[in-house]
Amino acid sequence: MKTKVLIIGAGLTGLSAAYHLEQAGFYDYLLLEAAPTPGGLCKSTERQGFTFDKSGHLLHLRDPYALDFFRRLLPLHRLERNAVVYTQGVQIPFPFQAHTNLLPQPARAVCQSGLKNPPAIKEPKTLQEWGLAAFGPGVYQYFLKPYNTKLWGADPANMTAEWCGAFIPPAQAKSGQKLGYNAHFYYPVKGGAEAVIRALAARVKNLHTHTAVHTIHWPLKTARTARGPVAFERVLSTAPLPDFLRLGGLGALAKPLTAAPIRVLNVAVKHPFNRFHWAYFPDEDVPFYRVGVQSAFSPANAPEGCASFYVELPGNTRPSPQEETRILSALAQKGIIKKEAVLFTFWQYLPHAYALYDFARTPAVQQAVRRLEGLGALLAGRYGLWEYSFMERGFLQGRQAALDLLKDLA
């Protein structure tokens, strides 16, 4: 097979690139996906009338083009975020730093004092320094440090602050303003998050699933795939960057790149629940760091009178009956579920859920991008660029990659 553009990975970004190539009248591409179906981690599982996504997948749409596109693509609910933080024996609205007045003493006094007089740290380089400079030692001690340590599996003192600005909201809000990039969001009316993928994939012609790329031979510009060799002019990769580098014999560039895995316990219960969309749990004695309410995103995600949850845990959590009992007991203790109403549970594992922002990441990504550009390869998407991101950004990166390819091939 021959193609001008080989796209590796049919997640949202790869599908977006293929779609936008076709919209420009360009069909000389192949979109290859190793899995039986497209979507990457944006997949949904149906069990006994419940629909579970692979952890949380929400559309945070702010860009006018993306908002119009997805509204036309499929029916969506628009939801105003209802998120909370469970800590210090109380439940307060998210973001934590904007509601410290609801904390018990002494946490309240420490947090509010730090917010008024945060330490002056010029050009903070670590997540620890950024959090202290932005919110003071109290908010850092009671929320930012324990929560991010759980999520990333790393000490904030050893992580950079590059990703923080776009994802961690400020401390104060104007009257009536909800803080953060996810203050409102969109979600498919039915079919779970994977409905987005199915709708977009239906508009793409040259998609081949069950087609893993085994190796890339850069000098000859050929790829060995499950469907045979493919000759190409340009490559766009949305696959995890370390995996893509190894395909082409560039594994040494991948060594500094690491990721934080997560374990997810999905829980279906026979009782309603509508107190929040998701909740954060920074306290060290709670095994999970976040709980999302899958059934709160769309009524179609659970049978009437039932609710469903995805419970996110550090990646080193080992599934076992004992661990599951501990998690369900903690959920019941917080008043989120009734243990006797649990219908079923099942586990999921995301091995590279979060690209780790340690001090090796950025230089390694920049070096890989330069090397790959010289070989005729582009990178896009959350895992292609090895970054912390969200669905809208991945979609727009796919669009931009298509425009860049069309310009280069003109």
Summing up helix and strand content along with how strands pair, one would put the structural category as alpha/beta
Report, as a whole number of angstroms, the end-to-end distance: 22 Å
The DSSP helix count reads 12
Proportion of residues in extended strands: 15-25%
Round the Cα radius of gyration to an integer and report it.
22 Å
Q: Biggest sheet: strands, sense, closure?
A: 7 strands, mixed
Series of secondary-structure elements, N-terminal to C-terminal: EHEEEHEEEHHHEHEEEEHHEEEHEHEHEH
Structure notes:
The chain has 410 residues and is of the alpha/beta class. Helix content is 32%, strand content 25%. It is built from twelve helices and 18 strands. Helix 1 links the parallel strand 1 and strand 2. Helix 1 (12-23) runs parallel beside helix 6, helix 1 packs across helix 12 and helix 3 runs antiparallel to helix 4. The mean pLDDT is 94.
Supply the key terms.
410 residues; alpha/beta; seven-stranded mixed β-sheet
